[in-house]
Amino acid sequence: MGTQLDFLTTEQCPVYLGGYDHIIVAFSGGKDSVACVLHLLDQGVDLRKLELWHHRVDGWDGEFMDWPCTNAYCEAFAAAVGVPLYWTWKVGGFEGEMLRENARTAPICFQAPQPDGSVIVKQTGGHGGVLSTRRAFPQVAADLSVRWCSAYLKIDNARTALRNQERFVGKRTLFLSGERAQESPGRAHYARFENDDADARTSPRLRRHIDRWRPVHHWSEKRVWEILEHYRVNPHPSYRLGWSRCSCAGCIFNGPDQFATLRHIWPARFARLCGYEREFDRTIKRNIALEALADLGTPFPVSEADVRAALSAQWHEPIFLNPGEWRLPMGAFAENAGPV
Ligand code: SF4
User: Fold this and answer.
1) C or N terminus of the chain, fewer CB within 10 Å?
2) Helix, strand, or coil here: 121?
3) What's the whole-model pTM score?
4) 20 C-alpha to ligand 1 centroid (Å)
5) 253 lines ligand 1 (CB under 6 A)
6) Judging by DSSP bridges, how do beta strands 119-124 and 172-176 pair with one another?
7) How many structural domains are present in the chain?
8) 21: in domain
């Protein structure tokens, strides 16, 4: 891998990376989180401080919403860059939280590296909160209290893992995430740089300084693809299948074409989503059932090789492609079926 520190010279890094003890990227495997890592490489980040965190939306061993390849892709990317990847997850994952019935939300687990180089799993929560029932998909809304998947399966995980590790106490940590203003009006309002939710810099006991940086917040999609092309990063297979965002395979924001494609390439998973709609007597989109929605769409012209890559739990491709191999994937600049 060759990193070129003179790329994007028009913009100096507004953040002094040398002032941090830990630099963490919330790494979904999607293009924006990849761009965050590549941007850090451009800035000459000290790789010894850098780590990636991936929130496993289906829990440790669940299989429901996500692309089967995502965990393996994230692992391969971290290995190719030469930095550690740590997992966080909610016990039972998306499906467990969705099926919650007169129960508390499940505990959160996260991997925590230790001073001796080992990595342990810590678990927290699951005892407090009220007994309640979901038995419904998250709602397609900007409000994270009803679009519960983002809050309960990602945001809470990061906050919990930052608040419950001794290694962040008395240290300065930079936490990066890849939201972009162009994605939605909701995200346009996010601050580019702010105190993280888990920050406790004024606490005399903790002195836990955590800044949140969204380095690609003002970037266009074009600029994101340019940095992937520059480093010749093999993008997550969902883009090659036609998705504009690397989200869960069955993401609630998928439109007709995405669900038509999912039904075509993965009929069993599509049928499982439809089965829950019938069981809950409530559809993901509220006003139309998935079957009818997929009927309105046209499957993307996928290749068998890309379907195999996306639906495999193993990753067999290089992360950094050879010169001349990089191609803009079919999903680039496609319709944005993303957060509102
Ligand atoms: S990708 Fe879609 S379904 Fe998955 S957690 Fe995010 S909003 Fe929810």
Assistant:
1) N
2) strand
3) 0.94
4) 31
5) yes
6) unpaired
7) 1
8) yes
